Amino acid sequence: MRLRLTLLVALLSLTAACGGAGSDISAAVADDGPAKRVALWGAEGGFVTATTNVLRPPRVVVYDDGVVIADASKQLKLNEDEVTRTVTSMEKYLTGQPPTASPKPDAPVVSDVPTTVLGVQGKDGKMVEVRVPALDQIAQFYPKELPEAKKLMDALATKAAESGTDYVGTRIRLVAEGAESAEGKPSPWPAGVEEPSGTVDPVWQKDLDGAAATAVTKAVPAGQEYGKSLFRTSAGALYVLTWRYLLPDE
């Protein structure tokens, strides 16, 4: 959250003789709203589970206040110059690219892999995004600017993993996936958390905050990527619960 200091000058009274003039100068804090994304690297699609598809966070998000969050799990802080250099570089790499890039005609066909998403805030304040199918597999068949943009964001992800701190949000996204044939001992459904209702196809999801979010993070063990475990509802249905922290602007 970025705050700016606004100086408010209030003139309390004036007299015709100018003998009783007085003024009061006070500082008021004005809220600029939540930080905004200025650069990102993410992925869409690919041959992944429904749970992964729902929970997958951007690989890297850079915010205008300098905060960088990688995989919704690690964060670091850039200074103003670093943010400017990052945005300027991403603008150079992505300007003129189509919304969905196409490889050279002689590129091999690659299926069932995620599409890379690269983005930067444009001059009008809106995010400009370029989708690059199978960038990791056939990078040499795309304009060199696209692999360079990904390389720049990948360096931030590596830096966050090596020297950043844990990212812990105030809100989470909970996903329940039916697991009627799952083995193992289920735990009771977390107290104070809504249970899935109706048809779950293929997954049920819910964004939570406050006590409900805390109940989930305490009840569901944290895994390498997301919390995950087997739970039984009051009606006896079995679900695998998975969650991640939501980003500040989600």
How is this structure best described in words?
The chain has 250 residues and is α+β, with helices and mostly antiparallel strands. Helices cover 20% and strands 35% of the residues. The chain has 4 helices and 14 strands. Strand 4 (60-63) and strand 5 form a beta hairpin. The protein is globular.
SSE blueprint and pairings:
Blueprint: E1 3-13, E2 22-31, E3 37-44, H1 50-55, E4 60-63, E5 67-70, E6 74-77, H2 80-94, E7 115-121, E8 127-133, H3 145-163, E9 165-166, E10 171-178, E11 187-188, E12 203-209, H4 210-219, E13 227-232, E14 238-245
Parallel strand pairs: 11-13
Antiparallel strand pairs: 1-2, 3-4, 3-7, 4-5, 5-6, 6-9, 7-8, 10-12, 10-14, 13-14
Helix pairs in contact: 2-3
**Which segments are poorly predicted (pLDDT under 50) over 5 or more consecutive residues?**
1-30
Radius of gyration over all CA atoms, rounded: 24 Å
How many angstroms separate the termini? 14 Å
Strand content: 35-45%
Order of helices and strands: EEEHEEEHEEHEEEEHEE
- Class from secondary-structure proportions: alpha+beta
Described by the principal axes of the CA atoms, the overall outline is: globular
Spatial strand arrangement across the major sheet: 8-7-3-4-5-6-9
Give the mean pLDDT. Answer: 86
The tally of beta strands, per DSSP, is 14
Biggest sheet character: 7 strands, antiparallel
Fraction of helical residues: 10-25%
